[in-house]
Structures are given as structure tokens and as C-alpha cells.
Amino acid sequence: MGFGAGLEQNHLLRALTADERARWLPHMEPVELPLGRVLHESGCTLSHVYFPTTAIVSMICVMSDGFTAEVAMVGNEGLVGISLMMGGETMPSRAVVNSGGQGYRLRAQLIKDEFERFGALTHLILRYTQALITQMTQIAVCNRHHSLDQQLCRRLLLSLDQVPGNELVMTQELIAAALGVRREGVTEGALKLQAAGLIRYARGHIRVLDRTGLEARTCECYAVVRKEYERLLPQR
Hints:
- By secondary structure, this protein is α+β, with helices and mostly antiparallel strands.
- The chain contains ten helices and ten strands.
């Protein structure tokens, strides 16, 4: 039995060895990841890890006053639930689907057992973790020092890198929650990008018309994150 075409869309799953694929395949569960679905809340024990294929999941920190900010995003390059391999059973952030699509999930104990074999998968996940830390660090810097217009372009470009095609299924409300800004600010920014011919936005769908134009408009943070993913995860 082959490793399904759907599984191949996730870069970590595609990089598994033949033995790992044989062990995992019977346990991989396809799941729909609709826009806005919460995969886990902050502090909850993780029962599964998720491998998005066409969806994007935001890791959101929620403050006691209700304010939110995105600390990382996971698409087809990785997995949701990395803390399980780092010695923890919970995540300090909320995981919410920011761009709807599909993915797979695997029981937490199975991936923990696989990680503890200290084989090829262990090294792969450690490299992915380093790339994820780079993304978190750069998002923190970007949110502090760059304009909302640059942040919006950076986020759209990072999203494009994690889904097939040039269309994103996400709402302005979720983008605003991710960036930690008011919805009106995202609306204004999206209208500017649309007027410049870079995107087309309608009813929760964003189609990128000019990727090169977005890259020229964003800050250096996007390039830093992209280069680190390409260095650490060459199969991407």
C-alpha cells in the first residue's frame, strides 16, 4: 500500500523513511480543518498532533484582557503539537485554523514513541523546531518594529508558502486576531493591496495576483523566515 497522495502534500510526512511510513500509515486519520476551528486551547493536554496539507493553523496567545496575537503559523511544512516531542504535554497557545482546508492527525503517543527512537524522524523534527523558533522570533520583531502594511504582506507571503496555489481561505477577523490589531486596520490594509493590484479579496477568500509585488512591499522578516525553512527543511 503506498503513502497516499494527500499525505505527500505535507512536507514532513513526505520526508518519512519507508519504515516510518509503514508504521504510521494505518494510524493516520484524514480530517477536515474548517476555517475557525480550534484544535486545542492553551494549557490543554494534547491527544493528537495535526499535519496540515491544505490548511493553515495559527498559534495564538490570548491575554487575560482578551487581546490576542499570533506567535507562529503551521501549514503543509510541519505539524501542530511540537511540544509533545520537547517534553511537554500541553501548549501555551491556542491553535486555531486560520485558512480552511484539510490535514491528517496522529495519536500523540505514537509520535512520541517514534521520536524517542532517535532515528531520522528525530533529526527532522528538531530541524523543523528550529525553523519554527526562527519564525516565532521574527514575528515578534516584525510586530514590534514594522508597519501594519508590512506585517500584512509578510503574513500573506508566509501563508502562501504553506498551501498549494495562490488562494487563501481566511477572514479579516482572524487576520486581525493574528496580528493583534483592530479589524478596521486589516480592512484598510487589504483595500490598499487590492487597489495596488496585488490581491483580490472577497467573502473570506484572498487571491494573490502579484506575489513579486507583495515581496517588494514587505519587510525583511519574510525573507529571514523563508531562508531558514529552506536551509533546515530542504525537502520543502
